[in-house]
Design goal:
The structure is a homodimer. With about 300 residues, chain A is α/β, with parallel strands linked by helices. Chain A is about 40% helix and about 25% strand. At the A-B interface, helix 6, strand 13, helix 8 and helix 10 of A face helix 6, strand 13, helix 8 and helix 10 of B.
């Protein structure tokens, strides 16, 4: 089983009430790939970086078994950079700087070996790039999931809807689901989004967990209540990576399989927020992951 | 098994994006009693009403098996009245009118037969009244739960803490837990609130479900995602009534028993919001409740 991950590999400067981390490694594709790497060893990464990206961070991804054949390096350019500051509640943040840099010219050409990836996780990028990736695939994919954001709904909704029509799973947050559907109720929003194409819809609610919708059926995965959320950056991408990585591992793309995927995604996201950036995702043990999965089971288990 | 319920029996005028209901029956004790009445038939209600409260509404409570010996009627006065308007998201509301009326002079004298109630649900009232009720009890209670609100934390924190020290379960919402503990993280808030006395803490998060804390253990009961939340008024009290009613029925005051209670409270609350006021709570069938409990089970059930 192989998983194609596409998105940003980048730098972030992050300020939270717990401190500030300057120019650390981030990017959707980075988080997705690290999280998925705990479940499968065939991850085909597609992204672009500048000459400023440290070799040891590339080596670190390689060491997690990530195939970097599709990692484009523009040695003349700078990597994508984002700087943001979280509010006290950690649920909202201000973006201070967004430097697209090399991302402006990103036009991913998939290596031949990537085109038959059975599973695909399209990170948040312009709908044009997402469509270009879909068009390069060989059509044998078992499951294609995508993320997006409000920004593309604001400026490129028609194109975005063309991409959404081509995927099996849309993974977005509650505000994005509301904007995309024009409905406040997430149940109503899901019904409308199903008509746009995706048979599965995952709505992320941050610290309030995530919902899976599948034509009238609803599953809820809680977020683990934590004493300290150190840095929420990348939690959504880590969730998506754990989710798709686990599904790629089991090969179970049924509703039941998706539910188990959601729990694994939530478990991986609960690690992500415990440290700045990708730090916590670099050296997890299977024991730690199993123990976390147990905590999730205990959190919702009851008998009547 | 008998459950003492104490709180307001009142009128509400409610405006939501779905419409307006003028001077309908509300009040914490009303919602608590209706919800609990589906699980036990010995409910001892203590409240005060004015001469304006309709006889048929009193008869309706009686018909649900509620003992009204402790319902004080001040025929010269008017019942407590609240008017509020919900915002589009239904999570926040503006209070437009609060007329205490007969509630100003409420000094509940418990009938003899109430004093040995095994279970007690103290609705949101002044800490002085809550304490007065506790002092009238005969000390044989199996489980005492209480609700409160930010307002009492603002103006009567020391007295409120004296009451909290005497109960087994505190049932409050997330903002109240944060204010009471001074901690933003609910996990940290719970640890502090446990030191104030209650061995169980239930934190209600509205549409995001409810958390049960018990000395380091955490259980999460989701709210049912609904296509339409018609009127959230009383949902928290209905939750508390279903919770305590179910526990009173089973007699199981263990952590496992509390968990099952939380699910029953959530199920009852999910009915409450489907209509204005107490309408939906008046004529539920056991089949409807069982079907709703099934929906909750499906919502969180997964296999790994």
């Amino acid at each position: 089983m192989s998983l194609l991950t596409i998105g940003t590999v980048a730098f972030d400067t992050i300020e939270t009430p717990y401190g500030k981390a300057e120019k650390i490694v981030g990017g959707a594709c980075t988080y997705i790939s690290y999280a998925a790497s705990y479940f499968i060893d065939k991850i085909n990464l597609s992204a672009i970086i500048g000459g400023d990206f440290p070799q040891e961070e590339i080596d670190s991804l390689k060491a997690r078994g990530v195939n970097l054949e599709g990692l484009e390096v523009d040695s003349e350019g700078l990597s994508f950079f984002w700087e943001g500051r979280y509010h006290t509640n950690m649920n909202s943040r201000d973006t201070l700087i967004t430097d697209l840099n090399v991302l402006q010219d990103f036009n991913p050409i998939l290596p031949e070996s990537y085109k038959s990836s059975e599973y695909v996780m399209l990170g948040n990028l312009t709908p044009d790039i997402q469509m270009s990736v879909l068009e390069q695939l060989d059509g044998t994919q078992k499951l294609i999931a995508m993320d997006t954001m409000n920004f593309w709904m604001d400026i490129a909704m028609p194109r975005l809807k063309e991409v959404i029509a081509k995927v099996d799973i849309l993974i977005i947050n509650d505000e994005e689901a509301r904007q995309l559907s024009g409905e406040y109720s997430l149940v109503k929003a899901a019904a409308i989004i199903h008509t746009m194409g995706p048979k599965y819809l995952v709505i992320k609610k941050g610290e309030h967990g995530a919902l899976l919708f599948h034509h009238g059926q609803i599953f809820f995965a809680p977020a683990l209540p934590l004493a300290e959320v150190f840095d929420p950056t990348g939690a959504g991408d880590t969730f998506a990576g754990g989710f798709m990585g686990y599904i790629a591992k089991t090969g179970d793309i049924s509703y039941e399989g998706m539910k188990a995927g959601l729990i694994h995604g939530s478990a991986m996201a609960s690690f992500c927020v415990e440290e700045f950036g990708i730090k916590r995702l670099k050296n997890l043990t299977q024991q730690e992951i199993d123990a976390r999965l147990d905590e999730f089971a205990k959190l919702v288990h009851y008998k009547i």
